[in-house]
Amino acid sequence: MRFLLDDEQREFARSLDAMLTAADTPSVVRAWAAGNHGPGRDLWARLAGAGVFALAVPEAYEGVGPLPVELAVAFTELGRHAVPGPVVETVAAAMLLADVGGPAAKEWLPRLASGAASATLRVAEYGPYVLDADAVDAVFTVTGDELRLAPGPGERSVSSDPARRLLRPGPGGELLASGARVSGAAVRAARWAAFVTAAQALGTGEALLRTTVAYVKQRTQFGSAIGSFQAVKHRLADTLIGLEFARPLLYGAALALAGDAPDAGAAVAAAKVAAGEAGYAAARTALQLHGAVGYTQELDLSLWLRKARPLRDAWGTPGACRARVLAEWPAASEDLAQ
After folding, report:
1. How far is residue 85 from each of residues 33, 88, 94, 133, 258, measured CA to CA in Å?
2. Could you tell me the pTM of the whole model?
3. CA 39, 43, 48, 52 torsion: positive or negative?
4. Would you place residue 1 in the very low, low, confident or very high pLDDT band (cuts 50, 70, 90)?
5. Which of 156, 174, 173 shows the shortest CA–CA distance to 165?
């Protein structure tokens, strides 16, 4: 199946690309990694003004969503520009609150849609740490069938990406809701988190490939640009194929989510494993073809290189995603079990 964006969706992507290019996101990422959240918060407000977070919030709570195709478009651009912060987790938290409803949804969802508040989310099944808990207004946690507004962050974990600050939420916190509705909503929220993470990974891979193609046209060996060497061409072609294979899976998952299809979980898992692996492969290609210069932190390339693996593993490792696909789509086993 061939997926094509309409004119409005393409214009949305172009407007986000122009805005993020003007924002100088590499400097924002470096500031965020150093603990200076001011530039990141300013960028967050601009993204909210462009309607990015409203895409995940229902109209009843002053949003326009959920609109999965538009979220895929937006988060691919966010990945291309290495936007820092818990943007994925804000979307997932919005989905969770909308599903659970009640006073917490009425309080937080309009603020998340407008950018007046930021949030992050931890679902216990995906690990003990939460992303950027020290930089947001609300830390939501789900353990079993309890949804809580967690207190301040505690212990910090090490991440391969300095701009992904993993912290363990403090114990206790205000109980917002409990019961089977919470546990079911958490499953669906994690599914949306995996979906937009896949879009981020795809955008990250595209940025890495574009930068690498430009570099191999300039770097020379034996009097020729290394981009003219067959081995380099083949490596870049393999990287492009991986990214292009992931794209229709991402939009297929968007349509499955839009229609609340019974196999939406498997569709998202397929998109996540394909986009995550393709983005990580793009990072390996970029590092190999840039040579030793690719290791230097001063080079902006490093900001994207460091994101590829965490995005591949966040909200569902490749192994977990493959298992989900194989369980629900047995016919896909020959392709995805490799």
Report:
1. 10, 8, 15, 10, 26
2. 0.94
3. negative
4. low
5. 156
